[in-house]
TrEMBL record:
Pfam families: MFS_1. Residues 3-375 form the Major facilitator superfamily (MFS) profile domain. It comes from Desulfofervidus auxilii. This is MFS transporter. It is a multi-pass membrane protein.
Length: 383
């Protein structure tokens, strides 16, 4: 466990920084008098900049030193916090946010890729790495909200700079993996494995459901359940802490590697069932309970996706393929958010949860009934 501690710290710090800033960036922009349409463009540019580099940076991480790329991306990510303390108008802020998005996109790909190359398909280690991300997701917005209660909004960026420096120092402690010489046709050959396409469809469905949640969770609580803003923020903190607690024990489940698709189907079934039930909840307490069960399924699903990534793809080309998977997930998240917005406007905030849940359940049955039969307990080579 001590050997992977720098990875765990790095993953938690990145999630902390990312969600602390992303949660309050619209408020910061509004305080500077940025127009709503411009705010949408800035937020969209942040995500698009990160998305645009996922596949290229994944390929670079296979060919070049992953550690050096991590140091560059983390420095760029931290530098954009400093720039946000100086930029005051739309164009400088837009340029700064795009640079930050480039840095974030690199970190989203390279950090987990380097970790998976280092540990391989060890479920317990992957579970702790995942738990660290969940804890950062829980504490980032919480700390940011507490800070803004007593200090001006720029204080958020000063804290981010300080944490960013610690983040960079921690990355210097990470091991590096030797780069490999590859041909692009090797990646194409890898994609001929039919199991990989099943994984990609699963990531697509997972992204759609994340996109719907990104739009609808807060709106459902605010508009249908009449929950106050403080408790909405507190809800996300509870969920993050719960996922951080539940992830490590899931890494000890029997057969999570040898029966990976079966467990993936079970996790998606649990997630989808309670995703649909979310749209039927009528009180905040029942909503929280349902989401806790749902995110138990999500935690196992994320763990299995990481495990299958290490099992299905050669380690020397893991970066490029991870970039592809993250691109599919990010694109599906955007699509899910767009679809949710259209459905919300015409049918209310409950229906997207129900549709998303049904889609997940249908694919879960395919994974359990069809893919589960193809798995054996004895051989990794089945993939």
């Amino acid at each position: 466990m001590f050997k992977i501690l720098p990875f765990i710290i790095a993953r938690g710090l990145f999630a902390f920084l990312y969600w602390m800033i992303f949660a309050y960036l619209p408020i910061f922009l509004k305080s500077y008098g940025i127009k709503d349409a411009q705010i949408g463009l800035i937020i969209g540019s942040y995500s698009f900049a990160a998305l645009s580099l996922m596949i290229p940076i994944g390929l670079f991480s296979d060919r070049l030193s992953s550690k050096k790329l991590l140091l560059f991306c983390s420095s760029l990510f931290t530098f954009h916090f400093l720039s946000l303390t100086i930029a005051k108008t739309f164009l400088p802020i837009l340029i700064t946010v795009i640079l930050g998005g480039f840095g974030a996109g690199g970190l989203i790909i390279i950090l987990p890729t380097l970790f998976l190359k280092y540990v391989g398909s060890k479920g317990k280690e992957i579970a702790y790495f995942q738990a660290s991300a969940c804890l950062g997701y829980a504490l980032g917005p919480l700390c940011g909200g507490i800070l803004l209660e007593y200090f001006p909004i720029n204080s958020l960026f000063y804290l981010a700079i300080l944490v960013g420096i610690i983040f960079i120092m921690d990355i210097t402690l990470l091991p590096d993996m030797p780069p490999t010489v590859f041909l692009f046709k090797d990646y194409y050959q890898d994609l001929k494995n039919p199991f990989i396409w099943v994984l990609m469809v699963t990531v697509l469905i997972m992204g759609l459901h994340f996109g719907i949640e990104r739009v609808n969770l807060s709106l459902y609580m605010k508009m249908k359940l009449q929950v106050e803003s403080f408790y909405i923020g507190f809800f996300f903190t509870i969920i993050g802490i719960w996922m951080a607690i539940i992830s490590p024990p899931l890494g000890y489940l029997k057969g999570i590697k040898n029966k990976a698709f079966s467990w993936l189907g079970i996790s998606l079934l649990l997630s989808g069932l309670f995703q649909g039930i979310t749209g039927l909840t009528a009180t905040f307490k029942s909503f929280v309970l349902v989401r806790l069960i749902h995110t138990t399924g999500d935690s196992l699903m994320l763990l299995e996706v990481s495990l299958l990534t290490t099992l299905l793809f050669p380690s020397q080309r893991l970066g490029g393929h991870s970039g592809l998977l993250f691109t599919i997930r990010a694109g599906a998240t955007f699509l899910g958010a767009t679809i949710a917005g259209i459905i919300n406007q015409n049918f209310g905030y409950a229906l997207p949860f129900i549709i998303s849940g049904c889609l997940s359940i249908l694919w879960a049955f395919f994974l359990i009934l069809k893919m589960g039969r193809k798995e054996s307990y004895n051989s990794r080579s089945q993939y």
